[in-house]
Amino acid sequence: MQFVPASPRNRPIDAALEVPDVSDGSLVPHVRRRQRDGGGVMTTVETNGVTLGVEHFGDRAAPLVLLAGGTTMLSWPDALCEALAHGGRHVVRYDLRDSGASTTVDPEAPAYTLRDLAADAAALARELDDRPAHLAGIGVGGMVAQVAALDHPDAFSALTLVGTRPVAPGPVDDDLPDHEPATMGRLFSRAMPDWSDRAAVAEFAAEGAEILGDDPVAARATAERRWDRTPGTEPGVQLANHLGMVFAKLDCTPRWRERLSELAIPTLVVHGRRDPFFPLGNGEALAREIPGARLLVLERAATAIPDAAAGEVAAAMLALSAHRPSR
Hints:
The chain is an alpha/beta fold. The protein has helices at about 80-85, 115-130, 140-150, 180-190, 200-210, 215-230, 235-240, 280-290, 305-320; strands at about 30-35, 40-45, 50-55, 65-70, 90-95, 135-140, 155-160, 265-270, 295-300. Strands 1-2-3-5-4-6-7-8-9 form a nine-stranded mixed β-sheet, sandwiched between helices. Helix 1 links the parallel strand 4 and strand 5.
């Protein structure tokens, strides 16, 4: 059964959008609908055989920065998207399959692979701009971004990897730090919330953020927005949106870590010093193994990009993609 995104409830509406030049119906081909959430323009785009929920910030004629959600687009803070747009970029953040406004079929048994998600990123980049895009991935979206850049090198001109690691979900390589056991014990020993109760889901997210070392107030607000745009309250669908559990069921083979040396585009690795989920050693490994990669350590961050660090991260990303090769 395919779920159709429900009508948004309690969605914040920005009556004074700062991106008027992306609000005319000619934004991208195959747009099915437009909404506003935060400071951008919401659309859905059909590409690679699926529908992807996307949000646009900035001038559509500017160089494209494509932000792969981890798993929903709301993993990327509004402050970062707005800073990149103000820096002269067309910023597009999007939901992976089985999350947000993107195609949702059966998160309990996904019929696609990590390679399909990587192909989605490449197809979306080409759909939005005829020039290579700066691709960024956060968390599990960072895994998608690594594979996309390796498998579709012509689609991307730069790569940013935030809070991720060079191997798939599951057993970690011996030289990489695994999830911090005590933190994971606290995080996953909690009872699941009533997914039909918006307040309970938001409180669950806030508690999880506090355990991980992230801002619980920001996490609660983001969870409320995520709940509002999730297609229904069925537990499997909500898990895919709020916890990204669908990744535990994906076929993520073959390995790609041994191919990282093939990457020939400017790369930025961003990692929180206090990240207990993918500890810093994972980001350090990525920076070592990707030729010429720069490592930016956010000293006060855990798994999320705090608004206070958005300017620093945006500046590093803008510097990385300042000079784009043409196709």
